[in-house]
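$ ./design --mode recover --in tokens.txt
reading tokens...
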């Protein structure tokens, strides 16, 4: 997510040529001939469609990833949807599981939706789940426990209504507002099970909500035919019938699947390094929509060169009514319409930030609730490197001083310095913005100053390669840093920027 805004005056560079395209669904890549499947779930070829050609076989390592097959119908009113969902889940933990959880994010207070499970079967038999956390977590007992490497099938059906007015404590990330329907985390989602057990908790409203593993999605999406639709992954051509359209979409290894749509969307697209970048903007904001495309393309260029390749063949950037500056999802980011219309400086900052999350969050995952600095602080400093690449040293220094240092200075002025490696819930909304988005990125800045540009990139590449598609933790980050910097310096910088004051 991108929070708060600061005025950074930077010179915009000349525009790259942009092609404004008619509103058509994205054509799918021709299917790769499948290998002989042993079971429907074992066939990984449907997911190849979302990958760049050189990365198609990344999918093959995901034999035990959770498969989601979702048939989703969005009502003509755009205020509710129904779905059936088949999930094939593998117990990849080191112990048997006596329960499996699904998170129902629409039911969390800051989302303000209402999801009702109308049918649930486990391996074909109807079961009754226990609902927890205000119906936002569903516990399904495994009887007998699901053994290590065991597999289980879930069949679900659900109906969901979405909010149409602002929810207290939310940021209009989920719902139908001002002609745009945005439905992040719209489906029952299995959270990460790790050494702490099931990661099931209500996220504070000012942080990100999800912590999940890379999974594989196929989504059949039916919606009114006048809607222009953007999703995570890649969709085939729409089939139109009696006022509605149906798209078949597939993802590569992604930890979530996001959908946004509007009858008002126009699309501008460009292709960089085999990635089709699509900017979805409201008709009246054409100039900002084109600017969003340019920024995104420059950001992808910067991060691919410094960190490593984006393996998917599509990246979508959407203008939505959210009151957060921007929010990241796999293969799709949303940026506030407010900034498209009134604040091009922050549009650039938020877009560069959310696109950086494709590397830190989407590809290299992390526990967004417990280790937000791995997620947000690393992304904040990576955004500063975008400014370095696009505007040179003055842009870089402006971002460091007017965003990162200014945020931390506010904490110091208020005598509220805190350590930077705490869970989101340990901070107030304001402290979170100052410490995790301000102080902790200065740790990465200090690393950059000690290492220099080349070694800093080498550290990021090492971390990226070792943790791509996985969830990384603090020791993984420190291990990658140690390939480029001596331990005494790392310890000193960690103490200076991250682990003090206690
Ligand atoms: Zn963020």
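writing sequence...
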């Amino acid at each position: 997510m991108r929070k708060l805004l600061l005025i950074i005056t930077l010179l915009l560079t000349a525009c790259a040529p942009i092609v404004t395209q008619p509103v058509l669904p994205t054509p799918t890549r021709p299917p790769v001939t499948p290998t002989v499947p042993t079971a429907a779930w074992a066939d990984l070829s449907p997911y190849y469609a979302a990958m760049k050609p050189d990365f198609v076989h990344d999918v093959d390592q995901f034999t035990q990833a959770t498969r989601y097959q979702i048939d989703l119908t969005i009502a003509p009113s755009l205020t509710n949807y129904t779905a059936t969902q088949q999930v094939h889940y593998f117990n990849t933990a080191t112990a048997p599981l006596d329960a499996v959880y699904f998170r129902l994010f629409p039911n969390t207070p800051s989302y303000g939706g209402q999801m009702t499970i109308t049918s649930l079967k486990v391996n074909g038999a109807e079961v009754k789940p226990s609902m927890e956390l205000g119906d936002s977590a569903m516990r399904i007992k495994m009887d007998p426990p699901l053994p290590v490497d065991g597999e289980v099938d879930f069949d679900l059906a659900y109906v969901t209504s979405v909010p149409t007015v602002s929810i207290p404590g939310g940021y209009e990330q989920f719902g139908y507002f001002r002609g745009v329907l945005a439905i992040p985390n719209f489906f029952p989602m299995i959270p990460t099970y790790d050494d702490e057990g099931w990661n099931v908790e209500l996220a504070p409203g000012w942080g990100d909500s999800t912590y999940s593993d890379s999974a594989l999605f196929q989504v059949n999406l039916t919606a009114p035919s006048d809607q222009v639709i953007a999703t995570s992954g890649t969709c085939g051509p729409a089939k139109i019938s009696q006022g509605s359209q149906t798209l078949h979409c597939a993802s590569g290894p992604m930890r979530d699947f996001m959908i946004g749509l509007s009858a008002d969307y126009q699309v501008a697209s460009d292709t960089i390094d085999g990635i089709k970048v699509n900017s979805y903007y409201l008709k009246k904001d054409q100039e900002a929509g084109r600017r969003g495309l340019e920024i995104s393309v420059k950001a992808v260029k910067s991060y691919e060169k410094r960190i490593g390749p984006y393996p998917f063949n599509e990246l979508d950037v959407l203008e939505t009514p959210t009151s957060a500056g921007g929010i990241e999802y796999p293969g799709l980011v949303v940026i506030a319409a407010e900034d498209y219309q009134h604040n091009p400086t922050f549009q650039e900052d938020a877009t560069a930030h959310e696109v950086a999350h494709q590397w830190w969050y989407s590809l290299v995952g992390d526990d967004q609730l417990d280790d937000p600095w791995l997620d947000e602080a690393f992304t904040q400093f990576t955004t500063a490197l975008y400014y370095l690449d696009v505007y040179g040293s003055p842009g870089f220094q402006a971002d460091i001083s007017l965003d990162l240092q200014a945020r931390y200075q506010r904490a110091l002025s208020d005598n509220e310095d805190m350590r930077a490696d705490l869970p989101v819930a340990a901070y107030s909304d304001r402290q979170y913005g100052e410490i995790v988005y301000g102080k902790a990125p200065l740790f990465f800045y200090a690393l950059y100053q000690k290492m220099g540009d080349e070694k800093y990139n080498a550290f990021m590449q090492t971390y990226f390669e070792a943790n791509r598609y996985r969830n990384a933790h603090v020791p993984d980050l420190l291990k990658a840093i140690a390939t480029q910097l001596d331990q005494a310096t790392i310890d000193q910088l960690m103490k200076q920027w991250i682990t003090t004051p206690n």
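exit 0
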